[in-house]
Amino acid sequence: MKKLNLCIDIDGTITEAYDWIPRANSYFNTNITAMDVKVYDIHQNLGVERKAYDEFYRSYGEILHDEVTIRAGAKEVLDELAKDHQIHFVTAREERMRDVTNKWLKRHLIPLNTLSLLGSHNKIGKAIELSCDIFIEDRYENAIQLASSGFQVLLINCYYNQEPLPPQVTRVNNWFEIKNVIEEYTQYPISQFKIAT
């Protein structure tokens, strides 16, 4: 079995994608639901200016990251994957969120080898540095950018990432599907592998 370097996003990937909605609805006096979240940028879904959302996030970002729930199956699958592969969390969260991020990962007993807080959605450099074999993401734009640089990407299905996908990006619905795809990947030489869609 090939030992893989798995690069994994955090928000919306190992965490539930819509847990921010009740607090944002309360703050902005809105009434959106998960099905209303059609784009990744939260301020657009709320119908507010980015500056207003940034102020909300400055006040509540750490609380949101602390109280977010873990996606079903993520803990169990990551425990299994960590037995044979390297687990690298690569997030666009800013460095100031390192403490709350570490505490959340420890509270949920999430296995990992490294944690990178980039403060940016440009993850290509870190993926290269980590010799990434598969990148697990929820943001469509990140998936396309990574795929265009030659990385295989698993895009976890969300209402806000429904655009067409290139061959290097595979849509998955949950962590059990992620586990199945990775297990298949390890059985073939990389040059022969084609992720089924």
C-alpha end-to-end distance: 22 Å
Strand fraction equals 5-15%
Helix percentage: 25-40%
Morphology call: globular
Provide the CATH architecture of the largest domain. 3-Layer(aba) Sandwich
Total of DSSP H or I helical runs spanning 4+ residues: 8
Characterize the main sheet. 6 strands, parallel
User: Largest sheet, order of strands side by side?
Assistant: 3-2-1-4-5-6
Write the topology of this structure:
Blueprint: E1 5-8, H1 21-28, H2 42-46, H3 50-67, H4 74-81, E2 86-91, H5 98-107, E3 114-117, H6 124-129, E4 134-137, H7 140-148, E5 152-156, E6 169-172, H8 175-185
Parallel strand pairs: 1-2, 1-4, 2-3, 4-5, 5-6
Write a structural description.
With 197 residues, the protein is α/β, with parallel strands linked by helices. It has two domains: 5-16 and 71-192, 3-Layer(aba) Sandwich (Rossmann fold), CATH 3.40.50.1000; 21-67, no CATH class. The protein has eight helices and six strands, in the order βααααβαβαβαββα. The protein has helices spanning 21-28, 42-46, 50-67, 74-81, 98-107, 124-129, 140-148, 175-185; strands at residues 5-8, 86-91, 114-117, 134-137, 152-156, 169-172. It has a six-stranded parallel sheet with strand order 3-2-1-4-5-6, sandwiched between helices. α7 links the parallel β4 (134-137) and β5 (152-156). The radius of gyration is 17 Å and the shape is globular. The model is unreliable at 189-197 (pLDDT under 50).
Structure characteristics:
alpha/beta; disordered C terminus; 8 helices; Rossmann fold; 6-stranded parallel sheet; 197 residues; globular
